[in-house]
Automatic annotation (TrEMBL):
Subcellular location: Cell membrane
Coiled coil: none
Gene3D superfamilies found in the cross-reference section: MetI-like
Name used for this protein in its record: Carbohydrate ABC transporter permease
Length: 296
């Protein structure tokens, strides 16, 4: 009887997760499967007729210079945003953990951009970074730094950097919150012992804090890799992939192939490469993180 009851209870447990499995199967796994299927066909994205062409879409994709530019921009964006967001988030979390006056207020201020709609953030920064009347350039001119007042979103030399800055502003608060939660799990006695041994701020940060929040760092790196590869809204709203191809990302490339050029096959092939890159980088990071934790 006890065995049958355990089987029934186990079966009932699967019923609780059945809805999410069904939804995931319909909206996630079916979509992935259909994208992979489409990548081997010539399709305009509208007609029901598809022509099987094998790996031709992938051959054209890897020969396309625009795809190479988009991939390079994505990798630069990935490295810069993941590293800088993690570093700034950790530094802010450490400062807020010190229980300075008004730290609850600053935690809220830093986290607000995370919950703001990308369209609002993009609109704000388009005004701030406006070449002629933006507050950033106006401030630089007021400080007699006119040589620094450039076209932040209209010059190919600065557009990608500007998008990176906006993305860091948007997600830095998330990194801070994750690190702050990790720091709360570290006993105060460890920091008190380090202080008694004469460890300064930076030595304590790199010798104690950074190793103890290694798990949080690994999580943020994985989330950053996936997030950077699927970044679309902030780029589309700020620059649209321009000027030229200076802020062309893999996601904007997929969008333009599908919507502007009616090339559903190549768009799907580019989408598959995004998935493969994300999975490979995430697996590598997880293995490196697990290896570091095992060494400790």
């Amino acid at each position: 009887m006890s065995g049958s009851r355990s089987v029934l209870s186990g079966g009932k447990a699967y019923l609780y997760i059945l809805p999410i499995l069904i939804l995931s199967g319909i909206f996630l796994y079916y979509s992935i499967g259909f994208t992979v299927y489409t990548s081997f066909h010539q399709w305009n994205g509208i007609d029901s007729q598809m022509k099987y062409i094998g790996f031709d879409n992938y051959k054209k994709l890897f020969d396309d210079s625009t795809y190479h530019i988009a991939l390079k921009n994505n990798l630069i964006f990935l490295v810069c945003t993941v590293l800088i967001q993690a570093a700034l988030g950790l530094l802010l979390a450490v400062l807020l953990r010190a229980k300075l006056f008004g730290n609850h207020f600053f935690k809220s201020i830093y986290f607000i951009p995370v919950v703001m709609a990308p369209v609002i953030i993009a609109a704000i920064f388009r005004i701030i970074m406006d070449t002629n009347f933006g507050s950033l350039n106006e401030t630089l001119r007021a400080l007699h730094l006119d040589f620094l007042a450039v076209s932040w979103l209209g010059d190919p030399k600065y557009a990608l950097m500007s998008v990176i800055i906006v993305n860091i502003f948007q997600w830095m608060g998330f990194s801070m919150t994750m690190y702050y939660s990790g720091l709360l799990a570290i006993p105060d006695e460890i920091y008190e012992s380090a202080k008694m041994d004469g460890s300064g701020f930076w030595r304590t940060l790199f010798r104690i804090t950074v190793p103890l929040v290694g798990g949080t760092t690994s999580t943020l790196v994985v989330l950053g890799i996936v997030g950077s590869l699927k970044t679309f809204d902030i780029v589309a709203l700020l620059t649209g992939g321009g000027p030229g191809r200076s802020t062309e990302f893999l996601t904007t490339y997929v969008y333009k192939k599908a919507i502007d050029e009616f090339n559903g096959g190549m768009s799907a092939a580019a989408g598959v490469t995004i998935l493969v890159i994300a999975v490979v980088l995430a697996v590598v990071q997880l293995r490196l993180g697990n290896r570091q934790q095992n060494n400790h």
